[in-house]
UniProtKB/TrEMBL annotation:
It comes from the Bacteria. Catalyzes the reversible adenylation of nicotinate mononucleotide (NaMN) to nicotinic acid adenine dinucleotide (NaAD). Residues 12-195 form the Cytidyltransferase-like domain. The keyword Nucleotidyltransferase applies. The keyword Hydrolase does not apply. SUPFAM superfamilies: Nucleotidylyl transferase (SSF52374). This is Probable nicotinate-nucleotide adenylyltransferase. Belongs to the NadD family. GO terms for molecular function: ATP binding; nicotinate-nucleotide adenylyltransferase activity. GO terms for biological process: NAD+ biosynthetic process. PANTHER family: NICOTINATE-NUCLEOTIDE ADENYLYLTRANSFERASE-RELATED, PHOSPHOPANTETHEINE ADENYLYLTRANSFERASE.
Amino acid sequence: MPDWLVNQPLGVFGGTFDPVHYGHLRLAEEAADRLGLAGIRWIPAGQPALRGVPRVTAGQRLAMVRLATADNRRFAVDAAEVEAAQPSYTVTTLERLREADQCGPQQPLVLLVGADAFAGLPGWYRWQSLFDLAHLAVAHRPGFAIDAAQLPAALAACYRERLCTNPSTLSKSPSGGIVTFAMTQLAISATQIRRLLASGGSVRYLLPDTVIAYIQDQHLYPEY
Ligand code: ATP
């Protein structure tokens, strides 16, 4: 039997995490359960290619992800993008994970994205190559439909062609499929948290207390 038939898929979760919050944590936790993932590798972006400069340093965003994920045995944090000198592109991150000293070519990889990120996929560097490297799992997010009729034409065609209705198919090949999953809907965003912090509002219950303590200690997000 080929190795990949016995390999449990690994979740790959990239983001700016500026800061990490319970929307991210529930997405990862529910993806692990629903999609039968061996674990989730969290990969904070160093210099995100597609958005403005994050409000805090890459090291601070990495520290917050480490605090938020520390007590979950299924979660691991990958600091390679944070330490890299060049901008983060998901396709190059996945190419790195495919190297022999990382996951190798056969293990199924499942890139986790929210519905908003998925709709913007055609703007990503070499986006079509992502499917040669990983499957994609798209989480529902309040305010963003996963509807082929509303997607850019090239992405809609790709979505129709690759959609798998049964998540168990993810373990049968290393890459190439798309699944969607309906996670607990949490209308939490890092933008909302930064706004609240800058205006002196409470952010309790939107992100872990350990991360809030770090933000206070480091005096992060004084301005939106
Ligand atoms: P910002 O408000 O700064 O744009 P964000 O809260 O969207 O940030 P990111 O770090 O940009 O957080 O998101 C990383 C990934 O997590 C993306 O794929 C995004 O779609 C997904 N995501 C973030 N928050 C949620 C949420 N509440 N529900 C589902 N998916 C989410």
